[in-house]
Design brief:
274 residues, alpha+beta, GTP Cyclohydrolase I, domain 2, 28% strand
């Protein structure tokens, strides 16, 4: 991906663990690498098609001056989020903040914290088979879209499907959505659990009835297997109520483990089912 760099922006501001740092202030040095697609700007010579590094430098300066944090980690984390939310063409940012006058009582040139943050694409499965199913799904999707650092890009049709897993219960209303997010996989999982709890979801019977079920299917091309999280979601290839809506919104998305598209997986499942 193309990059625009801002190197060594000096800012006098008030950040630090010690009270005198927050009162007297000191020098900070910020560097940023802005990841974006510069092709259109380069072909058209039009600044509106790129990221204005002058404006970004002013944004960084204003943010660092107007806020006060104890930790450099907090400065760069919150600054990265601001830039990603405010700059539509910014896909990823690397931020480095240096503190050359750090009060450690030793001869050092500088201390620094450097992070890289960016937008991610996740696919979320949703389902409900209790109460007003559509209302539960609508509210869950709205809640996800309202979260900071979350943009719902596509939502599939709602499908009426038979229960999965052998538990006798009412039919489900299922679908999937595409989410653009700044959340990590675990942060996203926590957010989904919060939305389920808001819908009074009770985890009593495995694969049992529920007011709202939200699962991460894919997160970029990552493969994660922990005690709390499995990405891609287990058994996707055998669940038509997942594959059908996935084919509706992203037929050519490729499963990072099985190396097959959603369309291919659905075709194979339907063939096996006769």
């Amino acid at each position: 991906m193309d990059k625009i760099e801002i190197i060594g922006l000096e800012i006098f501001a008030n950040h630090g663990v010690y009270p005198e740092e927050n009162v007297l202030g000191q020098k900070f040095v910020v560097s940023a690498v802005l990841y974006t697609d510069t092709r259109t700007a380069g072909r058209t010579d039009n600044l509106s098609q790129s990221i204005n590094y002058g404006e970004v430098s002013q944004m960084i300066t204003d943010f660092v001056r107007k806020n006060t944090y104890q930790l450099l980690e907090a400065v760069v984390e919150n600054l990265a989020e601001l830039l990603l939310l405010e700059l539509p063409l910014l896909e990823k940012v690397m931020l480095r903040i240096e503190k050359p006058w750090a009060p450690v009582g030793l001869p050092l040139k500088t201390v620094a914290v450097e992070i890289e943050r960016g937008w991610h694409t996740a696919y979320i499965a949703f389902g409900s088979n209790l109460g007003d199913k559509k209302a539960y799904l609508d509210k869950g999707i709205e809640g996800l879209a309202a979260g900071r650092g979350c943009e719902v890009k596509k939502v599939s049709s709602y499908l009426v499907t038979k229960p999965y897993g052998g538990v006798e219960q009412d039919e489900f209303l299922n679908g999937v959505l595409e989410l653009r997010t700044l959340l990590t996989p675990n942060e996203l999982l926590c957010r989904l659990h919060e939305l389920e709890q808001e819908a009074n979801r009770e985890r009593i019977i495995h694969w049992g009835p529920r007011t709202l079920d939200l699962d991460i299917l894919f997160y970029d091309k990552e493969i994660i297997d922990t005690s709390d999280l499995h990405i891609p979601h287990i058994d996707i290839q055998n669940r038509d109520f997942v594959l059908k809506p996935m084919v509706e919104i992203t037929p050519y998305l490729r499963h990072p483990v099985l190396n097959k598209t959603m369309m291919q997986l659905l075709g194979e499942l339907e063939k096996s089912m006769g």
